[in-house]
Give the backbone structure.
Amino acid sequence: MPVLARTIENLGIPTVTVTMIPDLAMKFRLSRVVGIEFPFGHNFGTPGNDALMQTVARAACQALEEAGGPGYRLDVDVEWPVPLETAYRTWHPPVPSPIVAEMLKRRQGG
Amino acid sequence: MTVDSYKYLPRSMRTMYESMPVIDEPPAWAPLPKPLHNCTVALMTSAGIYLRDSQEPFDVERERREPTWGDPTYRVIPRDVRSEDIACSHLHISHDDLLEDIDVVLPIRAFSALEAEGRIGRLAEEHYSFMGYQDRRLIDWQTVQGPELAARLKEHAVDVLLLAPA
């Protein structure tokens, strides 16, 4: 998705990217990056948690207003409200994605 | 706090991402055209959601056959969408929470509230969904879908795009 952000920004539309991997977004030299330490598939929080969603949305607004040039990064100071082991396990799909399955197969020499 | 970008990633992917160099291209930058409280904001997710009754799912069958391929197309999601209107075709994340509450990936309620309080000018009438897994099709995003979407955003007088890679 950093490629899309760059393409659209380079065509004149300002962007802000809310991402779990801000380090990677910075390597793509995006304009405005908001980092969240959340499991994948949960950029704005957990179902029904409007307060948490607001916190992240407001951080995106802050980034849009504060950034004076490219390479701006703002990390959201929120701990994920679910223990790491559970959160790590439950963000994954029920079966490995095709590319992950292929990598596992290769690793096992299959 | 400083976000740990690799907290939820398998170790092998951490190694891969950490070893990636910074791209050898100028930084992307477009300034806000006006104060945020006057801007129209659109939202984009890469969670692979689509309208279950009127849109095609993303092509995960081809991805199953060709694991390095990802569907580069996108779906338009109207602002008045309800969680029960959507389905998800994404093979890389769990669908449970985003199907329970679409705002987990596409925060329409949060930005509607920001619109109501005047923090942003307006939340756009339509938003966008991609399927985040792309390996070999990034060229399509650069040459087809990206420019097409930028033109569409301009047509709808959108000033700012928020991207939420799932």
In short: The mean pLDDT of chain A is 95. The radius of gyration of chain A is 16 Å. Chain A touches chain B through 75 residues (CB under 8 Å). The longest strand of chain A covers residues 15-19.
